[in-house]
Design brief:
Order of helices and strands: HHHHHHHHHHH
Largest sheet: none
Number of helices: 11
Radius of gyration: 27 Å
Distance between the termini: 90 Å
């Protein structure tokens, strides 16, 4: 037998509406939100890079100076990349010599092979290929190292011990990239010219004296200087992107792997985009 008390309604929970999950937005809203995030994410990434660059410059000019970390980063980026840069340079020069001699013989200009290879390597191919190889080897490794330190709270521990992590981890790597990639570019150019000479002269029968004379006649210091400036900028950019991706990695081992993947992709895009922008600035045309 029911009583009036049992028939009374249960008291309303005032926090129930707060605990209820909000309704899922319509598909059109979700699509617009995803499109806006995709369009704005590159600008946010560029902003993060400039913020970290500003912090690196600020902490780089303040003591204490981390010379030991700087030397270790130079060894890792420079010495550790010698083999892959040399191997890539030899085959790039060899295929350039093979293609250019074969193509120039069509209209009797094979004697210009040395000059064209030298100008192409000094201005464009040397710094671009070197930076791509450094980003693939050293950049990805730096992202993995810093990302592992982030997800295991080692960077937070450095902050607790009053050690600025940007000054200790980021600044030496960026400065080492700026310093070492130009040297690797010179090595790349020398090995590539050697590979091109061996193919063009020893395999395709081009006169060695003419090859070298054309090279010395058309390739001057301005071409080499242009390539070295690009190499320094590319080296700093690769190190900056690698440090940014690793420094702010999250999500455990999976997040570190994703950060490493983003590092390689972003470095390749940045190198190619900066190459065009810097070439336009140096030549004074092609930008506006």
């Amino acid at each position: 037998m029911t009583t009036p008390a049992s028939q009374a309604k249960a008291p309303r929970d005032p926090d129930r509406s707060a605990r209820e999950e909000p309704a899922e937005p319509p598909a059109a809203v979700r699509f617009a939100r995803a499109a806006a995030e995709s369009l704005l994410s590159p600008f946010a990434e560029v902003g993060m890079l400039f913020t970290m660059l500003g912090e690196a410059i600020f902490w780089g000019i303040r003591p204490p100076y981390r010379f030991r970390q700087f030397v270790a980063a130079m060894e890792f980026i420079g010495v550790g990349s010698i083999f892959i840069v040399s191997l890539t340079g030899f085959f790039v020069g060899a295929v350039l010599g093979l293609q250019l001699v074969d193509g120039f013989r069509t209209f009797g200009a094979e004697t210009q092979t040395g000059a064209v290879v030298g100008i192409g390597l000094a201005r464009e191919l040397g710094p671009v290929f070197t930076a791509l190889m450094v980003s693939s080897r050293a950049g990805s490794a730096m992202t993995t190292e810093l990302g592992s330190m982030r997800v295991t709270s080692q960077i937070d521990a450095m902050t607790t011990m009053a050690v600025n992590p940007v000054q200790y981890l980021v600044v030496p790597r960026i400065f080492a990239g700026v310093a070492m990639v130009p040297f690797l570019t010179v090595l790349f150019n020398v090995i590539a010219m050697t590979g091109s000479y061996l193919v063009a002269v020893n395999l395709l029968g081009l006169d060695g004296g003419i090859y070298l004379e054309r090279f010395k006649w058309l390739v001057d210091w301005e071409d080499i200087r242009q390539g070295l400036i690009k190499a320094a900028v590319f080296g700093g950019t690769v190190s900056l992107i690698a440090c940014r991706q690793g420094f702010f990695a999250s999500g455990g081992a999976s997040g570190v792997g994703q950060a490493t993947n983003r590092c390689v992709v972003h470095c390749a895009v940045a190198i190619l985009a900066l190459d065009y922008v810097m070439t336009g600035l140096i030549l004074g045309q092609g930008l506006f």
